[in-house]
Sequence to fold (368 residues):
Amino acid sequence: MSEVIKVGMADVKTCISPDVITTLGLGSCVGIALRDPVTKIGGLAHVMLPDSTQIRNNSNLYKFADTGIVELVREMEALGAVRSRMVAKIAGGAQMFAFQNKGDLVRIGERNVEASKSKLKELNIPLLAEDTGDKFGRTVIFNPETGDFLIKAVGRDERTI
Amino acid sequence: MADNKLDIEEMSEQYSDVLKEIGNIGAGNAMTALAQLIQSKIDMKVPQVKLLEFYELGAEVGGEEQIMASIYLAVEGDITGSILFLLEKQSARHLVSKLMGMELAGDDFSEIEVSALKEIGNIITGSYLNALSSMTGLTIYPSVPDLSIDMAAAVLSVPAIEFGILGDKILLIQTQFFDETEINGYFILLPDVDSYEKILTSLGLLS
Fold:
């Protein structure tokens, strides 16, 4: 029996096929799905903010794109995944309200996406696909067996990237 | 004041009753405005003050994927933060049809229906904030309202991110409202951490 593992906001979870991993209603947050195609180990990080170094209160490493991705990689390695084989897909980073967020938080969705990409690049993890930006929420389901990243949004067709 | 700065946990424990009362007065005022607008009776539950982990937040208003019509206003002035008025999609359709005096066609909202919904949000969040302002003597300016019809968790990510800058939990004052059949929705007031202190100080509870 395969299980569906749920990831919350500012959270990281890992799984091994046939289990799948999901996060519901990504808004301006970004979901980063990683997979080692050989061991079929997968993981999903749901990060809220781009950069832990810009913020004093940064004890929850899962909250930020930079530290969240590092933690995700570390937890997958602990299960036996190999970093040099890992590949990534990302989704989310929407702007839910036209004029949401002032000051530090302007274009936060977009910045979460940029920060996620730059961390993946730094770790030499190829980004295979993305469904990011725009102004709608997304539920995502990641299957580490196939690498399929299913994206559901209100009033839109489901798509797999 | 720096010496006795409260953290968010102490705030929610020690002043829970006061914060609930703020929700009670604010939402009570807003409900009166809403009831007048649509000329029917609306009830509200006892407000709840909740200190949540971020991963718990998404499920707060009927589940992460519950489609909500959400009106969001940023709050500025003496306090900063935001206020959200969330209605289940069907409730929102019902409200708009009552306001406009006609059944809505189709399954979604037309441009004029969206404007009507924003205006409802504007009026009733305005009533909430007015009550808060008279109670505390603080100046509160709401931004222009914006509307999103989407999954609850996606909408709640917006205030969550604001709190995420300052800490690892979110403190909110939530009031659920309903009528006998067709309306179910929530008010969520989210002052930022410093603003909670300002509110309590203005009420003479902190010095």
